[in-house]
Amino acid sequence: MLRSLLYKEESFIMEKKWWQDKVAYQIYPKSFYDTNGDGIGDLPGIIEKLDYLKELGVDIVWLSPCYRSPLADQGYDISDYYDIDPRFGTMEDMDRLIAEAKKRDMYIVMDLVVNHCSDEHEWFKKACKDPDGKYGRFFYLRDKEDGKLPTNWRSYFGGSVWEDLPGTNKQYLHVFHKKQPDLNWENPELREEVYKNINWWLDKGLGGFRIDAIINIKKALPMHDYEPDREDGLCSINKMLEEATGIGEFLGEMRDRTFKPHDAFSVGEVFNAKDEELPDFIGNNGYFSSMFDFNETIFGGSEKGWYDCKEITPDDYKRCCFETQAKMGDFGFVSNIIENHDEPRGVSHYIPEGDCCDTSKKMLAALNFMLRGLPFIYQGQELGMENIPFKSIDEVDDISTLDEYKVALDAGLTPEAALKAVARRSRDNARTPMQWTGEENAGFTAGTPWLRVNSNYTAINVEKETIDPNSVLNFYKKLIALRKDPEYKETVVYGALEPFMEDRHNLMAYYRKGDKTLLVVGNYQWDEQEITLPSECKKVLINNYPDMVLDGNLVKLHGYQVLVVELA
Question: Which of 148, 204, 314, 500 has most Cβ atoms within 10 angstroms of its Cβ?
Answer without folding.
Answer: 314
